[in-house]
Design brief:
The chain is an alpha/beta fold and 257 residues long. The protein has one domain: Vaccinia Virus protein VP39 (Rossmann fold, 3-Layer(aba) Sandwich), CATH 3.40.50. It is 43% helix and 18% strand. It has a seven-stranded mixed sheet, sandwiched between helices. Helix 4 links the parallel strand 2 and strand 3. The longest helix has 15 residues. The protein starts with 11 loop residues before the first helix and ends in a 9-residue tail after the last helix. The structure holds S-adenosylmethionine (SAM). S-adenosylmethionine binds next to helix 1 and helix 2. The site of S-adenosylmethionine (SAM) has 21 residues, from helix 1 and helix 2.
């Protein structure tokens, strides 16, 4: 039976449902392209040449082909079925990009991943599920592997700071009007209700590092965030006990419910 590494509490289904339908987080195609170009630029030094990468919560993954050109295998996983379907449509013939569903994610062999990426995803995962998920990631990592957790929201971040960052990027990349309209659409959507009811998981660096350490991962903040939101934070983690990294994935199936 595949292990359940996806967050399955009732509340996050609201976030999955939110991401499963069109939403106004990204203003338009140009916004998405600028976003993924920035991610690719920031991630390049972390991508293991010829290695195996799992992009967890990958979204539309516009940089996937460029990432796969450097890695041996790129696994893409997103909790939203509609996102996965779009990825599957694009990549079903790609020799090195594999789109995973929950079962195939749960069936990945222990100790098989060089880099787990999670960019701008933690906020949608309930705090009570994080510990179990990190433990599972540790089991998936090769002894010399890393997890790069990026765009982590600090609890003291006012929403206005995120808005200002989006508008700055929109101004630089020529989609300011679309960004303003997008913010209006977001304000009148169910985004704020879901954020209030399902939660928006935010961590201080010390909190996140503690959770990672409890899962057997040693982590440190990176000097600058990966991606276009400079006030958020990125963390690089690796198995603390590199010999035990593979062994931990043999522990009983994780149920993050
Ligand atoms: C802000 S987007 C980030 C996408 C991509 N990583 C990026 O940086 O552009 C968040 C993504 O996380 C996915 N997501 C939300 N909750 C998730 C969960 N519990 N497990 C995996 N993915 C999740 C959403 O479907 C969405 O595609």
């Amino acid at each position: 039976m595949p292990q359940n590494v996806h967050s399955t509490s009732d509340t996050p289904q609201d976030w999955v449902a939110f991401w499963n339908r069109p939403n106004a987080i990204y203003a338009n195609r140009r916004n998405l392209e600028a976003h993924f170009a920035c991610l690719l630029r920031d991630l390049e030094t972390y991508l293991p040449e010829g290695g195996t990468v799992l992009d967890f919560g990958c979204g539309d993954a516009l940089a996937a082909e460029a990432m796969a050109a450097r890695c041996g295998t790129l696994y893409l996983y997103d909790a939203a079925p509609a996102v996965r379907q779009r990825l599957q449509d694009r990549f079903h013939n790609h020799p090195r990009i594999k789109v995973l569903d929950e079962d195939s994610l749960g069936s990945l062999p222990a100790g098989s991943i060089d880099l787990i990426l999670a960019v701008s995803v933690l906020q949608y995962i309930p705090r009570e599920d994080l510990r179990g998920l990190m433990h599972r990631w540790r089991g998936l990592l090769r002894p010399e592997g890393h997890a790069l957790i990026a765009d982590v929201v600090d609890p003291h971040t006012p929403m206005l700071q995120d808005i200002a960052s989006q508008l700055r990027m929109a101004h630089q990349h020529g989609f300011l009007l679309a960004a303003l309209l997008g913010l209006g659409r977001l304000a009148f959507s169910d985004y704020r209700r879901i954020r209030r009811e399902a939660g928006f998981s935010a961590y201080t660096p010390a909190e996140l590092i503690d959770v990672l350490e409890a899962a057997g991962l040693s982590a440190a903040p990176l000097p600058r965030n990966v991606g276009p939101t400079p006030h958020r934070r990125s963390f690089l983690a690796r198995p603390t006990d590199r010999k035990a990294a593979v062994q931990s994935a043999d522990e009983p199936a994780l149920k993050v419910q």
